[in-house]
Design a protein that fits this description.
Helix content is 66%, strand content 0%. It has four helices and no strands.
Length: 64
């Protein structure tokens, strides 16, 4: 799965759970700016992807 597909899946899971980027920031312990940069397509990080996937129950293989 590529970064764009991963972002789409994360966005889908956020909508299903009624979560915001701020909720992901709190659940992952990552900075708000890190989450916003990642979700905005500006900054890919495997660590960020894995943490978000873990919170949302997305298989870790999708993180790259």
């Amino acid at each position: 799965m590529n970064y764009i597909e991963l972002l789409a899946e994360i966005d889908k899971q956020k909508r299903l759970r009624n979560l915001t980027n701020d909720d992901l920031h709190k659940a992952t312990g990552l900075a708000k700016s890190t989450i916003n940069g990642f979700m905005g397509g500006k900054r890919y990080s495997k660590l960020v992807a894995e943490k978000i996937c873990g919170v949302l129950g997305i298989p870790s293989e999708m993180a790259g």
